[in-house]
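Re: that chain you flagged

S.,

Sorry for the slow reply, it's been a week of failed gels. I finally had a moment to sit down with the sequence you sent. For the record, here it is as I used it:
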Amino acid sequence: MVLAFLSCCFSSAYAQVYNILTYKAVADGKTNNTISIQKAVDDCAAHGGGTVWVPPGTYVTGMIKLKSNVNLHLESGSVLQALANGTKYVSLIMIEDVEHVSVTGTGTLFGNGKNFLVQEAAPDRPYILFAKNSKNILIENVHLLHSAAWALRLFGCVGVKIKGISIYSHANFNNDGIDIESKDVVVSDCIIDTGDDAICLKSDDPKHPTENITITNCIAASNCNPIKMGTSSYGGYKNITISNCVLRAASESPLHHWNADPKNYITDRITGISGIALEIVDGGKMEQVNISNISMTGIQTPIFIRLGSRANSTGSIKNVIISNITATSRSRMSSTIAAVPGYYIENVILRDIMIKSEGGGTIDDVTRRVPEEDKAYPENRMFGWSLPAYGLYVRHVKNLTLNNVQFTLEKPDARPAIWLEDVHQFRGEHLQTPKPNTTWLKQVNSTQVNITNYTETK
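Prediction finished late last night. Pasting the structure tokens below so you have them in one place:
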């Protein structure tokens, strides 16, 4: 059988193949193969590297630790199934303190998540794949199925390519798809369907921001946030580009019922929370973020940008461009850009955006006081199940530009399209909304508001 070797990670000197069957692995879906598979990895590394080949069949195993210059290749029809007999381990596949490592092939890494403790924040639930403090990693084409926790986590790594993988994970709580806390990372051509955040950037280390990240050509389906930065933001985020992605609601009902709205505003059985969620609530800086060419459906709130003060220090969000977005909002919680009193989100451009909202907002929605919730967990419903605007709610922001932005409604709404509160240097160019009952733009304690080329639709 011919295997495709990765010239970027392996030279021809590493072409030797180590078949796990040679090490007495048994594909019966019952036998614990941890020792056999690990021995194949160790021998491969000891001889300078090569490919550990997993042929078709289901192999039960505990944690496998990959080593430098090793390619773990899962042949079509092969399954590595996480051992769930009470043994405690960190991850089904562990990549730690190594370099030039890859996981490839069209086989499956099965997290067996339902056979671990099914509970929010429960301990001792392994990831499917965890890369930590490592360099030059490739993860390509494999299928990650039903993790007990996050499916794929990157922490402290440099130089990672994730290409063409699929993730389907609805077996347990905290079922994130890809969590990134590293730098120089490219994610492309992936299909992700998860019970929690689909693609989530985190930053727990104040000394090391998550930076130089490109995410492109992906389909992200989630019962939470398809694309998110946060909540952990101590180190911040810098130089992030996300493009050409489709965001949608997940394929299965969530363990958490995010649509359990006491006022029955949300009628869809399955919805994502926020399509694009950018959050700094634990200190840290977010800057130089460019998000473009995104289509989303089945999402409560299309865009959610939050600067909060959950930690002792308040960070910053600056220099964000979001463009070429088409979205349908499935709630009364409009897109939101909101900081806390005394701080401002700065230098944000929203350009070439079309958002269709459900409508149905009332005068009570317009007149109610929206709480600041300085220290609350950042989520769209933190301000209540409705907001005073149906299109965009903005509070504590400086230098915001909306260019070629169109809001439409499925049914009449008493709210304005845009609400500005403590907003300074606002430029609106080529804006379009349905003809309002009273006003399409509400200003509260805002200055330097400049609108050009506003039009109304019937």
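What I noticed first: The first helix runs from residue 34 to 46.

Talk soon,
D.
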